[in-house]
Amino acid sequence: MSDHHHHDHDHDHDHDHTPITVDEMPSYFDLMETAVRELLVERKFFRADEIRRQIEVLDSRTPALGAKVVARAWTDPAFKSRLLENGRTGCEELGITFYDDTQLIVLENTPEVHNLIVCTLCSCYPRPVLGLPPDWYKLKPYRARAVYEPRSVLEEFGTSIPDDVEIRVSDSTAIIRYLVLPMRPDGTEHLNETQLADLVTRDAMIGVIQVAYNREAV
Amino acid sequence: MGTENLVRKLPNDIGGDEAGKIERVEHVLLPWEKRCHALADVLDFHKIINTEEKRRGVESLGAEMIGELSYYERWIVAFANILFQKGILTPGELAMKMSEVEGRFSDVPSTHHN
User: Fold this and answer.
1) Is residue A94 part of a domain?
2) Which one is predicted more confidently, A1 or A140?
3) Residue B10 confidence (pLDDT)
4) Residue B24, min C-alpha distance to chain A (Å)
5) Is residue A1 domain-resident?
6) Which residue has the higher pLDDT, A16 or A192?
7) Residues B71-107 pLDDT 10s
8) What is the mean pLDDT of chain B?
């Protein structure tokens, strides 16, 4: 990771030579991570390239994958029913691999029910389809409050859910993860699947916002 | 509401607690944080430490450390403790390896050592 910045250049300039990649002493915890990893590699519990490969896997997971799933569900009713039946195999149909043992339950928003996901105990999240969770998802205020005052929480995200709409909060676990299938916005009948996917954001699949469509902005 | 609450609710069990406004903070992971996340996944794949063991390992750090350490700091300390408990590593081995790793940066001024 500490890629030294070696390059030849002439010295007819007067900026200081602080390298772009500043080599500073790693923090205590950074040292600990390196030490634990290297000890385990030395003892052949796993190979160094497994870590590198997993970093690539993590980098390959972004909310664009979830958005693709949502857009397909909006345009293909048979796919949607399979997805709601089994979220994991539904995503796998679209080529999204699950690199862990987690199950995925897809929760459909309707005019009667709005879904919100949380992990009160820690930070469980549908990582194979959304990537890593935002910090606020892992911090106390969201985890503590989502389960008892979801309407106020949603208001803080600028989302007003009418009183006659039920709000269901699903608390994730180590092996069961959730993904919200937001409602398709009105006025999007003419959009194709790719254009629809562009409307779907991470926060909408967590359930803290709804998918918006602004015809003029598109 | 006295000491019994310490027993009823462990540090991770915060669902339903009073808490402040949600600050919508996000950050791009530091290189070591991303490696730590990959390490967690690889430890899980090899059935060395699974997700629930990790969560429990963080919980057993106790409220003070959970409150003060950052997210991935909690993880790496929990991993070390679990590996000690399983007899896979000893504290002495880890300490020696950490000094060795630190030695690779001996020509670097130790500006911020937290």
Assistant:
1) yes
2) A140
3) 81
4) 5
5) no
6) A192
7) 999 999 999 999 999 999 999 999 999 999 999 987 7
8) 91
Of A134, A100, A82, A196, the closest CA to residue A91 belongs to A82
| CB contact residues (below 8 A), chain A span 153-172, against chain B | 153, 156-157, 171
Which amino acids of A are annotated catalytic? 119, 122-124
Q: Could you tell me the pTM of the whole model? A: 0.85
Write down the pLDDT at residue B6.
79
Residues of A in contact with B20 (CB under 8 A): 141
d(CA B49, CA A120): 21
Phi then psi for residue A176, to 5 deg, are -115, 120
Chain A residues close to B50, C-beta within 8 Å: 174
- Split at pLDDT 50, 70, 90, the class of A216 is low
What integer pLDDT is reported at residue B69 of this predicted model?
96
Residue B78 forms part of a structural domain: yes
Q: How many domains does chain A have?
A: 1
Interface test with B, best of A46, A145, A149 (most B CBs within 10 A): A145
Q: Which residue of A has its CA nearest to B76?
A: A33
Q: Give the range of the structural domain holding residue B76, as residue numbers without chain letter.
A: 39-102
User: What is the span of the domain harbouring residue A121?
Assistant: 62-217
Q: Is there a contact between B25 and A135 if contact means CB atoms under 8 Å apart?
A: yes
Q: Is residue B86 within 8 angstroms of chain A, CB to CB?
A: no
What is the token pair recorded at B28? 């791009």
Domain harbouring A195, CATH code: 3.90.330.10
Burial class, B92, CB count within 10 angstroms (exposed 0-12 / middle 13-18 / buried 19+): exposed
Q: Look at B88 and A45 and tell me if their CB atoms are within 8 Å.
A: yes
Strands A166-171 and A176-181: unpaired
> What is the total count of domains within chain B?
1
> Is B74 a domain residue?
yes
pLDDT of residue B5: 79
Q: At what angle do helices B91-103 and B71-85 cross, to 10 degrees?
A: 130
CB contact B16 to A (< 8 Å) = yes
How many CB atoms lie under 10 A from the CB of residue A82? 15
Has residue A15 got a pLDDT over 50?
A: no
Q: Which residues of B touch A58 (CB under 8 A)?
A: 34, 37-38, 41
Residue A138, token pair as written in the block: 């892992």
* A142–B22 CB contact, under 8 Å: yes
